[in-house]
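input
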Amino acid sequence: MKTVDFEKVKAGDLVEVPRTQFAPMRRGWNGWLFSEAVVIQKGISAKNRRKVIKVEMRTPKSSNDYGTMEKTFYAEYVFQTKHIETARRFMQADGVNSKEEFYEYIKQDDVCGCDWIKFLVDKGFLF
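output
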């Protein structure tokens, strides 16, 4: 995983941030779950003068829906993501080519785990 360049990241960029540590006995980022997030603003911490990035991140909610929360991370804990390309590849494989088709697709009984793609669609990164 590659951290974002603090100088180049701007509001509205899609990034990936740590959400939950599920295995504290593991080293590094192995043992963490990550979420997609949209950068809101960046700045310098008044407390310790470190670079920080404020994001709106996706949180789990239900089968094909999500919640969001705003959170501030140190810049070294914000990572680049390729989730847009991955989501496009998944959608093309299932024949989904528009926002309307996507919302009809996730209503099917056998479809689950599309909350991260729905976040990308709702934030305007897809379609």
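quick obs: Residues 14-122 form one domain.
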